[in-house]
Amino acid sequence: MIKKLKPLLILLGAFAISYLLWLLGQVQPDPVEEAPAPDVIVEILTPKDFQIQISSNGTTKPLTQTVLTAEVGGEVIYRSKKFSEGSSVIEGEILAKIDDTDLQLQYKNALLQLANAEVQYSLQLAEAEVAKEAWDKIGDGVASDLTLKKPQLKQAEALLEVAKAQVSSAAKKLNKTEIIAPYAGRIQNVNIDLGTTIIPGQPVGAMYTSSEIEITLAVKDNDLQFLSIPMDGRKLNPSEQASVVIESFYKGKTQSWEGKLERVDGVIDPITRMINLIAVFKNDFIETDKPNLPIGLFVEAKIDGITLKNIFEIPINSISKDNEVYIVDKDNQLELRKLTVLKKYSEFVIIKDGLRAGERIVTSKLSTASNGIKVNPVYNK
What we know:
Elements: H1 2-26, E1 39-44, E2 48-62, E3 65-69, E4 74-79, E5 88-89, E6 94-98, H2 101-138, H3 150-175, E7 178-180, E8 185-190, E9 197-198, E10 203-208, E11 212-220, E12 243-250, E13 253-268, E14 274-282, E15 298-315, E16 324-328, E17 334-338, E18 341-344, E19 348-351, E20 360-362, E21 376-379
Parallel strand pairs: 1-21
Antiparallel strand pairs: 1-20, 2-11, 2-15, 3-10, 4-6, 4-9, 5-8, 6-7, 8-10, 11-14, 12-13, 12-15, 13-14, 15-19, 16-17, 16-20, 18-19
């Protein structure tokens, strides 16, 4: 019986399997949903005018600094109380005096020598005139210079000129016994005191101008394109002088001063590729509302450069180290674009070419990105 049913069972099993496979073929797989476009933060580009500012730093120093020296020797018999370190002095102020006793003696001796020379010259002049008259009366032919006493007269004349020069020199030395401030400024150091004996040419102190302060500011040679100034080292005209603002922590708070760029060194350092700019700052003789700029102060400087027209300012985090940015096109797809950076600041860079007004630039960080990827732009508020 089983043998007779076996073929039938095999047919039924095959039919069941075929039906089951047919049913499975009717089941449709769930559709694979497309991944949503990633959000990116974008900013609409708007051109604007931008004034370049160049950063630098330096240390304040006096515009003029003078070592005061004694032109004559002797004992210091007077020293002004203002001839002290840090004191302010005015032009022509007497700082110290040197004993002039010996110089007075030298001056009087020179006057005596001058009087003797004048007498000798007068005698030789009279003798020369007598000799000439005698020759005119009894002489024959041309008289010699010696007969006419011309050499003696010439010698007396030379001695007279020497005596006059000695009087002038002695008078000049006598007038140099006072050490006088050559300009208004401040005393930097003093090397003498009452009773000190000094020799000619010995430094007695130093002073500097306090009304004008100078700062040397080193900038990159590439930044010179943003400064409309000549490179010949001459003092700039007022119309060419860029404004310079410096800041420093002084007297317990951050202070600022404004000055002008006066000249350019003109020599580029071959190693650092830096060039020195010299800025000058004015000081009032007496402090009023704000402190005067001291000597030796380290300062941070901002130099005003030219104003560029139609410049794009983009955040520093939107541009790669290779100066590439992503732009979102009209189809919301990414476009990689390489740019030429004019100048880079700490928070942004400025671009002149390669961008258009109204374009959307990606300002957010992208983990994976490439040309053509569709994104969902989110506008930066």
